[in-house]
Amino acid sequence: MTALRSASSLPIAADQGATVIRLHDHPLSGNGHKVRMLLSMLGLPHEHVFRDVPSGRPQQEPEFAALNPLLQIPILEDGQTVIWDSQAILVYLARRYGPDWFPLEPEPAARVMQWLSFATNEINNSLQQARLYYLLGEHHDIDLMTRRGLRVLTILDRELAERPWLAADRATIADLACYPYVGLSRQGKLPLDDFRRTVAWMERIEALPGYIPMPGLLGTPAIP
Length: 224
Ligand SMILES: N[C@@H](CCC(=O)N[C@@H](CS)C(=O)NCC(=O)O)C(=O)O
Fold this sequence. Notes:
The protein has a five-stranded mixed sheet with strand order 1-3-2-4-5, covered by helices on one side. It has 224 residues and is an alpha+beta fold. It starts with a strand and ends in an 18-residue tail after the last helix. It folds into two domains: 2-100, Glutaredoxin (3-Layer(aba) Sandwich); 102-206, Up-down Bundle (Glutathione S-transferase Yfyf (Class Pi), Chain A, domain 2). It is built from seven helices and five strands. The structure holds glutathione. Glutathione is lined by residues 29, 31, 53, 59, 71-74, 85-87, 120.
């Protein structure tokens, strides 16, 4: 394996019989950050496996393709269980280690799914692409991504006028799934100045026990 392992978290003692949780990730990945936040908020010891996906190198490695046929991070290994896609990983971790993060009553469960879908489709196909256009020079229709991004932020801000959290009366994985690319949106030249309810919601997330920041979020330098 060419990936580097960092010991940023406590190792799980083999003699306790616990499985090792391993997150394949890149520190500038917003999708990865959703998972990093939940692992931290749940207090779960884990290892990071650095995957330099912008370089294209991990995508050449058969071992990486065996973990995720889409050749993307984040990927979570929990013992023999391998899950890819940040939303799916949030669901897995919540159901296995922190059920409060994913309420199963019909309405909040449906609302969580609604916002996980919003994160996958609407947010990733606007704010994430605009960020990649400016940060990494990726080819995207930036006018379209900007228009879509403004629509996403407008919808979020309107929804957050009605309630403090997206899916329930407390923070859930819906909030964590939507948070990173909204918080990183100024890197895609979509500042949050006109979206004060969204900024207040971000501050509520940032006050949760175990919250961790990442470079580029508000309160950190815009370009790391
Ligand atoms: N739907 C996936 C998207 C994952 C994704 O876009 N990952 C990016 C990094 S944030 C990646 O690995 N890109 C490299 C590639 O597609 O080759 C998720 O939510 O995890």
